[in-house]
Design goal:
Layout: E1 3-6, E2 9-16, E3 20-25, H1 39-42, E4 46-51, H2 68-81, E5 87-92, H3 94-105, E6 110-116, H4 124-136, H5 142-153, H6 156-160, H7 164-173, H8 179-190, E7 205-210, H9 218-227, E8 232-236, H10 243-246, H11 248-258
Parallel strand pairs: 3-4, 3-5, 5-6, 6-7, 7-8
Antiparallel strand pairs: 1-2, 2-4
Length: about 260
């Protein structure tokens, strides 16, 4: 279980495959395993690096405020520790925020950027939802809390097909984040935006979103793509915010089409 000590925490990471490094950054309340269904297609061509952000998984969850820039710094420390000079970076949801900050602060490090179900700045409704997610973590039992997030993540088809039961089963036995880790991640999301800095991202960028994403709707991704020079936007039909789980083959295909061989 590889970990390094960075910025006052123990940071868990995982490496699979060989080739050009590809870093995958998970989103709010999710550890690195959230990428598991996409990874098999990626490791055929890339050295895939995943990490648990502070607050979740096997990484430390200090009970003190987090920031997105701080989590980007954690990520940079990991890359430096691994001796990686340049890397393709993909971030899902909050992971997309982290990826943007990494690309802005260290453009020499990021070969290309893939932003999945992410945003530059949320609107009032989105901020209210994220604030609620953070507050509820301190008031609901862990498994019940995780189940309250599912309707925001997955589509009606995922529910009606019965696939959602697999996620519920995982919640029943999977180690859950601490309430304070979830809370501090939610506040990091609320206090970060890149709206006025997107034009400074100069690396090749792909923006991906599910057409049925009700948490971070297509308009959020459209604004990302419009703000980043020459960014490409791909909308995946029939997919929601949790498309890394719901539509992993479609996501992997779009990523591989964009990434250099």
């Amino acid at each position: 279980m590889p970990k390094i000590h960075v910025n006052g925490i123990d940071l868990y990471y995982n490496i699979q495959g060989k080739g050009t490094p590809l870093l995958l950054i998970a989103g709010f309340d999710c550890d690195s395993s959230y990428w598991s269904l996409v990874v098999p297609a990626l490791v055929k061509n890339y050295q895939v690096i995943r990490l648990d952000n502070r607050g979740v998984g096997k990484s430390s969850a200090p009970d003190s405020p987090y920031t997105i820039k701080q989590m980007a710094d954690d990520t940079l420390e990991l890359l430096d520790y691994l001796g990686i000079i340049q890397v393709h970076v993909a971030g899902h949801s909050m992971g997309g925020q982290i990826a943007q900050e990494l690309a802005l602060a260290h453009p020499e490090k990021v070969k290309s950027l893939i932003l999945l179900s992410s945003w530059a700045k949320g609107n009032t409704k989105f901020d209210s939802i994220i604030e609620m997610f953070g507050n509820l973590s301190n008031h609901l039992e862990g498994k019940i809390y995780q189940k309250t997030l599912l309707p925001w993540m997955y589509t009606e088809n995922f529910y009606s097909s019965g696939s959602i039961q697999n996620i519920i089963s995982i919640i029943e036995y999977y180690p859950l984040p601490t309430p304070h880790g979830i809370y501090h991640q939610s506040r990091a999301i609320l206090h970060n935006h890149t709206n006025d800095r997107l034009h400074k991202i100069l690396c090749p960028t792909l923006v991906i979103v599910g057409k049925e994403d009700i948490l971070t709707p297509v308009a959020f991704s459209q604004r990302l793509a419009d703000g980043i020079n020459d960014a490409e936007l791909v909308i995946i039909e029939g997919a929601g915010h949790g498309f890394l789980v719901e539509s992993p083959d479609a996501v992997a295909n779009v990523m591989l089409k964009f990434l250099p061989k």
